[in-house]
Amino acid sequence: MIKYRLATSKDNQQLLELTRSAGMPGKMALRIDRYPDFFKLNKLRGATTVYVATDGANIVGCICVSDQNVYINKQHYPLYYISDFKVSKTHRHLGIGLELTNTVVKYLETQNADLVFLNVAKGNKRPFVFFSDRGHYPDFQNIGTFTTFQYIGKKKKLSNKKYKIELSRATSEVIEFLNDYYSQYELASIITNDKIKDTDLYVVREQNQILAVMALIDTMEMKQNVVLKMPWHLKGIIAFINVFCQLFKLSKLPKENEPIKMLYVRYLAIKVYDKALVSALISFAKQQAYNKSYAFVSISLHENDNLLQKLPKFMRFTFNSVGMLVSMKDNNKLMEMVNKGMPFRDYSTI
C-alpha cells in the first residue's frame, strides 16, 4: 500500500537514489544528482517542505515546495516554487504522481497560497495535472521561455581595462544595489544576506559608485548535472574542442555519463545596459570557471530580459525551459503584471 508523508533527514540516501534514477529524456538526456545531501540545495531555494510516497520501507516518489518572497511590480509577494517531482520507474502509472500533487495542493491551501511556479522542459505539459481536475482552480500559464547560456571556461586577460572587477563583501550597499536592480523583474527573489552568503561577489565601480554586481555560485557540492545522451554532432564538437582545449586555453568539456562541472551567475546587476561591461563580466566569469577546471559558467535569462542582447554570442551552448505560473486565487491582475513584465528565476537552484 502506498503511503504519503513528510520526508526526514533519514530519507536522504533513498532520495538520492530516486533522484539518480529519474533522468530527463530528450535529444540531450540529463540527470541531476544531489550528492551528498538531497536537502542542501533546498536551503538555497527557501523554506522547503518535502513529501515522499512510500511502498513499505521504500521511497517511490517525492515532491518539494519552497516558500519564497519575490517582486511583482516592485512589491513583495509570497511565491511557492514546486520542484523535484519524481516517481520511481517501477511505480509509474499507479496514480502516485497525482496523489503527490494532491498532497501539495492541500498544503498550499493551508498556507492560503496564491502564486505557484514550476519550471519544465519545453513541450512538457505534465504540470497541468496539478489543477486540471479541480474546477475551482485555474490551470498553469506559460509565462515564457528561459534560456540557459553555458559559456565554455577560458583563460583570458580582460581586454577592457576600463572596468576593474573586484571581490566584495555582502555589504548593505551591495545588497541595496542588487535589490534596486532585481525589483524591476517579476518573480525575482528579494535578496538578503542569506541569499548571497554562499556566493562570490564581484563589484565594478566608477568614481566610488557601483556600476555592476555579479554573484557567482558553485553548487557542485549540492547538485551535479550528468549528460546521459547527446546528439552525434554535439559529441563531435566536444571531441574537437577537447583535442585543442590546451592550445586555445579552453576548459575541457564533459563526455557522456560525466558530471558537468559548472559555475552559475546567480545574479548580474548593472546600472546601465552597457554591452562592453556585460562582456567584461562574462569574460571574468569564464576565467573563474577555467581556474577551477570547470567546463562552463552558466547564466539563465527570460526571453523578455533586456540583458539578452548584451550577452556575448560565441563559445556557448544553450538550453531552453518554460516557466509555468498559476494564481490559485485567479488574480488576473497579478498574472497580467508578470506576463507583461520581465520575469527572472534563479536557475542555480533548479
From TrEMBL:
Membrane-crossing residue ranges in chain numbering: none
Gene Ontology MF: a single term: acyltransferase activity, transferring groups other than amino-acyl groups
Name of a matching Pfam family: Acetyltransf_1
Domain N-acetyltransferase: residue ranges: 2-165
Matching InterPro entries: Acyl_CoA_acyltransferase, GNAT_dom
Keyword annotations of the record: Transferase
Name of the featured protein: GNAT family N-acetyltransferase
